[in-house]
């Protein structure tokens, strides 16, 4: 009887661990299964892939021929001066710098690197909590001061 109760208790704990792991993977995304969210900037709506971990932010959109969604949103736990480069990028981007629910800057038509040339960097105009990368031209309707909201 004690053995049956122990096996039952261990089974329940194991099921809980598996369910928690699946929930965490769906809510935060992993290297193989990214998480997505909807964002509103001004009058535009984007479906974006989230980059919330250091590893995902470091990889960004490198090595891709296309984004695969409307863009990628880099999420930081607290405001920070953000510096981005275009390492291993294959297409030009617009970068939208965001903090406290407002666009603080826009870097337009940032080109991919040219073979043999040093990588250029782009820096946020002030500390930010989010950086949105979209294909070049897609941020044409976005301006400094536009409001930003995020929906999971």
Summarize the structure.
By secondary structure, this protein is α+β, with helices and mostly antiparallel strands.
State the main characteristics.
22% helix, alpha+beta, Jelly Rolls, 2 domains, seven-stranded mixed beta sheet, 152 residues, two-stranded antiparallel ribbon
State the fourth-level CATH superfamily of the largest domain.
Protein of unknown function DUF192
Trace the largest sheet across and list its strands: 6-5-8-3-2-1-9
Share of helical residues: 10-25%
- What value does the average pLDDT take? 83
Unreliable segments of 5+ consecutive residues: 15-30
- Count of all domains: 2
Computed Rg: 20 Å
Span between termini: 46 Å
Number of helices: 2
Instruction: Tell me the name of the CATH class of the largest domain.
Output: Mainly Beta
- Which range does the strand content fall in? 35-45%
CATH architect. name of the largest domain = Sandwich
Run of helices and strands? HEEHEEEEEEE
Main sheet makeup:
7 strands, mixed
Based on DSSP secondary structure assignment, what is the total number of beta strands? 9
Question: What name does CATH use for the topology of the largest domain?
Answer: Jelly Rolls
Structural class: alpha+beta
- Mass-distribution shape: globular
For this entry, what is the oligomeric state of its chains? single chain
